[in-house]
Amino acid sequence: MGTNQHAFKVVADGSITTPKGYKAGGLHCGLKKTDRHDLGAIVSEVPAVAAGVYTLNAFQAAPIRVTRDSIESDGLLSAVIVNSGNANAVTGKQGEADAYEMRSLFAEKIGVPAAHVAVASTGVIGELLKMDKVRDGISRLPEKLDASEAGADGFCQAILTTDLVKKSVCVAVEVKGQTVHIAGASKGSGMIHPNMATMLGFMTTDANIGADALQQLLRRATDLTFNMITVDGDTSTNDMLVAMANGLAGNEQLSPAHPDWAAFEAAFVYVCEVLAKAIARDGEGATKLVEVQIRGAESDEAARAIAKTVIGSSLVKSAMFGADANWGRIIAAVGRSGQQVNVDTVDVRIGDIVTLEQSRPVAFDEEAALAYLKGDTVVVIVDLHMGGSSATAWGCDLTYDYVRINAAYRT
């Protein structure tokens, strides 16, 4: 295990099945045109306390309604089943019936109540699921479930669409002498401008934690991480982040009053941040991760709004792709964020290169800036000098390939 500056350890070879009591797996059932996995599941050997956050898009996909129903029934989940290749969104009553059928069929196969299964889908909007293929896949899925890395890998493969890489992370943290694991897996590459979570995200932990504490923590972590990324400014119909905590670590129950809460919270947020940044880096057609830090804002809300405005600017993203230190686009985005800004006190830095100081241009080495912007990670720092609040947002550059990928998404 590698370490970092916080009171937790990153498990280098960890996965969503590293926390005690979890299995996962995936297979190809025929929803995708290729032979890539397109149906997967995570299963806990005991019912787990569950929490979820969902897209605020008005056209919420059918699986979101089913998952809400499951979690709100008694706050517990034993499993989540996910398909890729079809979003089951804007599919009317039939789409909702299909999502409920996925839930009941898988629940029956693994021997748990239907209300203890969450459902998620991702892919093309407006097409009905090929339920004959889904039914066949569900009948075969239990035999693919495994607590090994192979099972976790199968699940991670099953949730991908235009993603180029799997996104997974696991950490360990001590709670009163007991080792607790927190892990996560996610997918997302395009249609990423979350207003709740990522495209799809799943977290597993063996921690003993109360339902209210887990829900509040998930919302806070989401606001700090998944809600601070953007790829293209589009919020999906299917965005969902679900966390399961089965308590098998045997720790004293966690709550904000617990002496080890701060360490657990830091570990939980870290998992979300790693996944969020991985999504931003894997943006469709992207060549680099872009990080925008806003400092000296009047409030956390203002800092977040400004950071997301800058990171979401098509002109800023294009400049990043072209390795152009065009700070004018950055300052213009700050100015149109809708937040109060003192136009006489703003500093802008690209990496270590100061381009604006107290709202006045600073001569800088263009060649050095070009070399820095050609790297695979770019950090932009904006200091407003107005207060003590700050925020960080993540995104990527806007490339020719983004248009190519999305121009032919259905074909």
UniProtKB/TrEMBL annotation:
GO terms for cellular component: cytoplasm. InterPro entries: Arg_biosynth_ArgJ, ArgJ-like_dom_sf, ArgJ_beta_C. Its EC number is 2.3.1.35, 2.3.1.1. The keyword Acyltransferase applies. Keywords: Acyltransferase, Amino-acid biosynthesis, Arginine biosynthesis, Autocatalytic cleavage, Cytoplasm, Multifunctional enzyme, Transferase. Pathway: Amino-acid biosynthesis; L-arginine biosynthesis; L-ornithine and N-acetyl-L-glutamate from L-glutamate and N(2)-acetyl-L-ornithine (cyclic): step 1/1; Amino-acid biosynthesis; L-arginine biosynthesis; N(2)-acetyl-L-ornithine from L-glutamate: step 1/4. GO terms for molecular function: L-glutamate N-acetyltransferase activity; L-glutamate N-acetyltransferase activity, acting on acetyl-L-ornithine as donor. The record marks 122-123 as: Involved in the stabilization of negative charge on the oxyanion by the formation of the oxyanion hole. The record marks 197-198 as: Cleavage. Pfam families: ArgJ (PF01960). The active site is at residue 198. It catalyses: N(2)-acetyl-L-ornithine + L-glutamate = N-acetyl-L-glutamate + L-ornithine; L-glutamate + acetyl-CoA = N-acetyl-L-glutamate + CoA + H(+). One of its GO terms (biological process) is L-arginine biosynthetic process. It comes from the Bacteria. It is an enzyme of class 2 (transferase). Its main location: cytoplasm. CDD domains: OAT (cd02152). It is found in: Cytoplasm. Substrate binds at residues 161, 187, 198, 284, 406, 411. Heterotetramer of two alpha and two beta chains. Belongs to the ArgJ family. Catalyzes two activities which are involved in the cyclic version of arginine biosynthesis: the synthesis of N-acetylglutamate from glutamate and acetyl-CoA as the acetyl donor, and of ornithine by transacetylation between N(2)-acetylornithine and glutamate. This is Arginine biosynthesis bifunctional protein ArgJ. It comes from Paenibacillus protaetiae. The gene is argJ.
